[in-house]
Design a protein that fits this description.
Elements (H helix, E strand, L loop, with lengths): L1 H16 L2 H9 L3 H30 L1 H12 L2 H6 L4 H30 L4 H30 L4 H20 L4 H6 L1
Helix pairs in contact: 1-6, 1-7, 1-8, 2-3, 3-4, 3-6, 4-6, 4-8, 6-7, 7-8
Amino acid sequence: MLVIVNAFVGGMIGMERTIIPKFAEIQFGIASKTALLSFIIAFGITKAITNYFTGKLANRFGRKNLLLFGWVLALPIPFILIYAESWNWVIFANILLGISQGLTWSSTVVMKIDLVGEKDRGLAMGLNEFAGYFAVGLVAFLSGYIAQKYGITPYPFYLGIGISIIGFLLTLFFVKDTRKFVQQE
């Protein structure tokens, strides 16, 4: 289940990666290189900071709780992008996405490592990365296709609405916290 959940995590990144430069140009008149740099920096910095704290917070608040909170933060992102009135809204959405990704992706990594123990940690990481990045590519392709066929907004962002709702619900109802597996080691 965690591999599937992480595929949805990756899908949230994929939703915007192929279309944001064109979105910036069409909606806000921003040159693609400027747009790429600012939204990637906003995402990257916040994800890196959140990654750093997720391990510590996972022991304090529980892995599943962090995963759920990450999904809660992901829920408004597509709506912010659909209704963005300025480029600052897009930057804000990517700050939320960075925090969400830091919590969700890192939580799924920690949870898989909890489940497999010391000897299969590499396999757990490999499965996590495969599912996440496969979904990044697949959803990036789909959002690009949808943007080409139906327009840059709002239709490609509907993918993100579906992804965030399904990811949240899968986590809420089917993912179990894995802290007890660490205590058994």
